[in-house]
UniProtKB/TrEMBL annotation:
Record key words, sorted: Aminotransferase, Pyridoxal phosphate, Transferase
Source domain of life: Bacteria
Family: Belongs to the class-I pyridoxal-phosphate-dependent aminotransferase family.
Span of domain Aminotransferase class I/classII large: 27-386
GO molecular function, one term: kynurenine-oxoglutarate transaminase activity
Name of the featured protein: N-succinyldiaminopimelate aminotransferase
Cellular component, GO annotation: cytoplasm
Cofactor(s) annotated in UniProt: pyridoxal 5'-phosphate
Amino acid sequence: LAGEDGSTKPTIFAEMSALAAATGAANLGQGFPDEDGPEWIREAAIAALRSGENQYPPGRGALALREAIAAHQLRHYGIALDPESEVLVTVGATEALTAAILALAGPGDEVVTLEPFYDSHAAAIAMAGATHVTVPLAPTDDGFALDRAALDAAVGQATRLILVNTPHNPTGAVLTRAELAAIAEAAARADAVVVTDEVYEHLTFDGAEHVPFATLPGMRERTITVSSSGKTFSLTGWKIGWATGPAQLIEAVTAIKQFLTYSGGAPFQSAIARALAEGDGDIAALRETLDRRRQVLLDSLAAVGFGTVRPQGTYFVCADATPFLNADVPDGAAFARWLPAEIGVACVPLAAFCRAGSATADRLRNWVRFTFVKDDATLATAIERLAALR
Ligand code: PMP
Ligand code: GLN
């Protein structure tokens, strides 16, 4: 894994959060909320701790949580799942993704992802010894869009897995039904399994519809859906995630997962079971708050002179920093490392979500990502400081 992709170094999120802490910068880099999720859900975890839910939960996850995940998928998307065989609880979405990739891909297999991609996707493909092939999401007037010709060129006989991520980190794109249908067609043609990372499933804006990949015609049987409570309930440190899909695929993921962690987070599993059952109102409130903050950040970045693309989902706004670059600060990566000490704000370069030297890395070389999942005071401080760039 110690490769040219730098996978043994701290992640870009850890690096930028450390830089933000060292410089006192407002941290709009790493995507985690600085306001904890609902108190009643935290109280539910305390109650579970007190009532003795402190030993290993079952390897597949507490039954109450598996039932709540199945009920959530049915209520929101009409996806029916057997909690016994089609739901697996994991230590965050990260473990579900890594276990799925390790279970299904190996040397000689190609795994196709979008580019830019979330960092752990590439690391897990490298751990599996598989070959990473990418399909660009490119900025357009309407947001970041899938390059269909590149998709058709990327998916072929050697494709074992296609990794989808919608709503998409870092671009904030919510893939359209037509884009997902094109991926579905390619998956069927190559007889590939699809792993879909839907951790931002509830965080969509402007009326954009989140279309779960498993709901596309014919796709349920070849799709592993991954999500997590971290983003939905602003409890990222609890690391309660899950994978759902056909029994045979979930069994393969479980076979790996049992030797990664076996199980985790007993009292949190119990609390998230309740959150999924009773927390729809909290989810709606979070989406409204984030929508407002998204608009504030977008307007402020544009006013300072960044080129921006309006995100339809996630925690993130991508911005073109070209107007602020010069010989000393020549690209987005340099800008992200310069900004905390000089201006007092942290962000993340989009190059960190791209393969070194790829066409997408080149196209996005001047771009950075800012998160708006911060409290109003932090956002206001960041915006005030960014005005100094003008
Ligand atoms: N996938 C994406 C696209 C993410 O942005 C994140 C983290 N924010 C994860 C997976 C990891 O989720 P978890 O913290 O539940 O492991
Ligand atoms: N998903 C978060 C982000 O994109 C980071 C989570 C992490 O640091 N692993 O910023």
